[in-house]
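Teaching assistant's notes for section 4

Start the section by putting this record on the projector. Ask students to predict, before seeing the second block, whether GNAT family N-acetyltransferase will look compact or extended. Collect guesses on the board.
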Amino acid sequence: MIREATPDDVPLVLRLVHELAAYERAPHEVRATEDDLRAHLFGPDAAASALIAERDGEPVGFAIWFRTFSTWLGRPGIHLEDLFVRPEARGGGHGRALLLELARIAVERGYGRVEWSVLDWNAPAIGFYEALGARPQDEWTVYRLTGDALRAAASGQSS
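Reveal the predicted structure now:
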């Protein structure tokens, strides 16, 4: 049901990214290309990994993750960047299987945590995560530096 993605999966992964973006009401924000995914998932300096969920040999979902580090735990962790199961396959255990595989990887490698973000309006996902035992980290607020602000900061300016 769950397998590691291969370079041949890049077009599929990009399609699933677009489907996820549409579900999250932000299809216009996807800038990734197949070349980007190929380089950063499978290139010599790969930054992330991907898992594919299948039902009867057909892809129904994916997870993109990367390694983090916790200074408080003194060990690596996993950040789940994207988890998506196609609507017609939801309720079939694929999302759970993807998360359990990430937990297995984390434990096997001695990592201290698996963490991710969820949109505050996504009640089905929040309920699903909490049913697995995940708890929100309400005391933290995510900040992001991107686009013009990122370029300005990189040049020593503030926006």
